[in-house]
Automatic annotation (TrEMBL):
<dbReference type="Pfam" id="PF07992">
    <property type="entry name" value="Pyr_redox_2"/>
</dbReference>
<protein>
    <submittedName>
        <fullName>Thioredoxin reductase (NADPH)</fullName>
    </submittedName>
</protein>
<dbReference type="InterPro" id="IPR036188">
    <property type="entry name" value="FAD/NAD-bd_sf"/>
</dbReference>
<feature type="domain" description="FAD/NAD(P)-binding">
    <location>
        <begin position="7"/>
        <end position="285"/>
    </location>
</feature>
<dbReference type="InterPro" id="IPR023753">
    <property type="entry name" value="FAD/NAD-binding_dom"/>
</dbReference>
<dbReference type="GO" id="GO:0016491">
    <property type="term" value="F:oxidoreductase activity"/>
</dbReference>
<keyword id="KW-0285">Flavoprotein</keyword>
<dbReference type="InterPro" id="IPR050097">
    <property type="entry name" value="Ferredoxin-NADP_redctase_2"/>
</dbReference>
<keyword id="KW-0560">Oxidoreductase</keyword>
Amino acid sequence: MEPKKIFDVVILGCGPAGIQAAIHASRKKASVLLLGRLNKSSLFWAHVENFMGMFKTSGEAMLTTGLAQAKSFGAETLEEDALRISQTGRCLEIETESGNVLCARALVVATGTTRNRLGVPGEKELLGRGVSYCVDCDGGFFRGEDVAVVGGQSAAAGGALTLLSMARSVHLVAESLDVSPVLKAKLAQSGVVLHEGVKPVAVQGEGKVSGLALSDGQTLAVSGVFIELGAKGVLELASSLGLTLDESMKYIDTDKRQATSVPGVFAAGDICGPPLQMAKAVGEGCVAGSNAAMYAKNMKLAQEGPDEEQPQAQ
């Protein structure tokens, strides 16, 4: 197997927090990889008029300029989501959509929050009774059963593939499938039953899930419905890495350095909680990126010994 590439800092999320973290980490001479797509950030579709120094501009323009800045300082980019993250020895191993496996000395989680729910009848009523928002957390409860995953991005596709090893049958319901060609090929070659071009209209069941009604009139006889919209969310990341969440169980708990409960893992932006504003995300990205680079440098020194002193950018 080809050796995994090791980065000082890998950043999950291509929004304002992630890009700012990439800028600051790169300026400290760290090797940086930024994972994600600009158009998956909520800022991409917004207009900004409450950020210092800006009267009014588009979020797309700000993100595009910010990404160019990060690249100018040496950051590398990969337009993919992380599917799996695990701690292996003193390195964090990250598997992306296309099957790339990378290693990071430090990780910055800046994926934002998934604010969307399906909003269909039965979803709220059957939450915890067959409806789940986390395959990694709850998939094991559905061994030998028939399940459905709802979503058209990497979290849903990856979740469906994960469930194949547990459930009797797995349906993937996607109004539009937007994943990498490699991940799409994996789905096509797997036993996942894809329902593309339709959407759920109701979760059915009395006391527990018994079916998922679709917009084409079909009803899937399933006992579990996993709603996985977007990229990997906070619950999945917390489950795989052991991150501590706040009392609401919606956001990652961090200290003033933007450090999480797991050494080498930092977080910034909306995933750390309100106010869900760009100004806060940028500030936290600055702190997280700087401290992640410092952590990676110290780890590298401990592992490899001192190297020639590098001048540090301010």
